[in-house]
Design goal:
single chain; 319 residues; alpha+beta; four-stranded mixed sheet; 34% helix; globular
């Protein structure tokens, strides 16, 4: 069995052209670009809580990094560097080869250098810390939504939740839809390009990525910005044919694991946002609006514009 340091050298050491000094010393040395701020985030994936036992290690490697890059996307930051800390029950070469392939495939896709980390023996637990940069003062934040703003969401929220339900045997999906949902769950695509364009074009006021559920994560914007929102269920993407409408709606609103971006922007920006969607070949859905703070922080409207009950907002580890 390889030692900890042999394991790192064999599976997780690659050239790091963006770093002054990469893996192999007590610390990595990094030099952010002049005039830029660092955006830093960390996320942990725990077997049994965030992914099922037996998950394909290559897909797991991709996802473990991608979910962190999604946080950078939400703030409009360009990904630069990553560190990986993980506990492994055993050092199986076959698993490590596939997992590291997934990590470096995602890192290559988004221009990230893996510059360090740590490994230990224990239950399967993976924690990335990623660093990005952006011009000083230009970060997209959660606390700047304004009454009158439109609310937008990217992509296809709800597919990942349906994929998980399919894996757990809670729903049966047609083959093509099942494949699409499982891809959304197991290999999410962080919206880095969208985050960068939203910042550079000054289109958005506030933004967040959807990890715990659309309504739950929107709630963080509402709390930090001290505003309220009206959300139109009928304005979200059409629910897939052949799936129970109530189940599909619940996946859209509260399923989580989507890693899409929710953002607010002035109504005057609609044409620019539509042009951006076409440019990126990424659907952007206007699904509600920000209103002044009220006793009810979030109102969900049905197809007739009538308030409807909210069954659940999203995932909470300790809820």
């Amino acid at each position: 069995m390889p030692s900890e340091f042999e394991l790192i050298r064999t599976y997780f050491s690659r050239p790091t052209p963006q770093a002054v000094l990469g893996p192999g010393d007590d610390c990595a040395l990094l030099a952010p670009s002049a005039g830029c701020e660092l955006a830093i985030t960390t996320d942990m994936l725990v077997e049994g809580s965030h992914f099922l036992p037996g998950t394909d290690p290559r897909q797991l490697g991709w996802k473990a990094l991608a979910v962190n890059l999604s946080d950078l996307a939400a703030m409009g930051a360009k990904p630069r560097w990553a560190l990986l800390a993980g506990s492994l029950p055993e050092a199986r070469a076959e698993w490590l080869v596939a997992f590291s392939e997934g990590v470096f495939a995602c890192a290559s896709r988004y221009g990230v250098d893996l510059v360090g980390g740590d490994t230990t023996r224990g239950p399967l637990n993976l924690c990335f810390t990623v660093l990005g940069e952006l011009p000083a003062g230009e970060a997209l934040r959660r606390d700047r939504a304004l009454p009158g703003d439109d609310l937008w969401v990217s992509g296809w929220p709800g597919l990942a939740a349906m994929g998980l339900a399919c894996l757990q045997g809670r729903v049966q999906l047609k083959e093509a839809l099942a494949k699409r949902c499982l891809a959304a769950l197991q290999q999410p695509m962080p919206r880095v390009e969208l985050g960068l364009e939203l910042r550079l074009r000054r289109l958005a006021h506030a933004a967040i990525d959807v990890s715990d559920g659309l309504l739950a994560d929107l709630g963080h914007i509402l709390d930090r910005s001290a505003v309220a929102a009206e959300v139109g269920a009928a304005q979200l993407p059409s629910r897939p044919a052949g799936v129970d409408p109530a189940f599909a709606r619940q996946c859209q609103l509260a399923g989580g694991d989507d890693y899409e971006l929710v953002f607010s922007a002035l109504p005057e920006r609609r044409l620019e946002i539509a042009a951006l969607a076409a440019e990126l070949d990424l659907p952007l859905w206007r699904f509600g609006r920000i209103v002044a703070a009220a006793n009810t922080r979030l109102t969900l409207l049905d197809e007739d514009g009538q308030a409807m009950a909210i069954d659940g907002k999203g995932f909470d580890h300790f809820g």
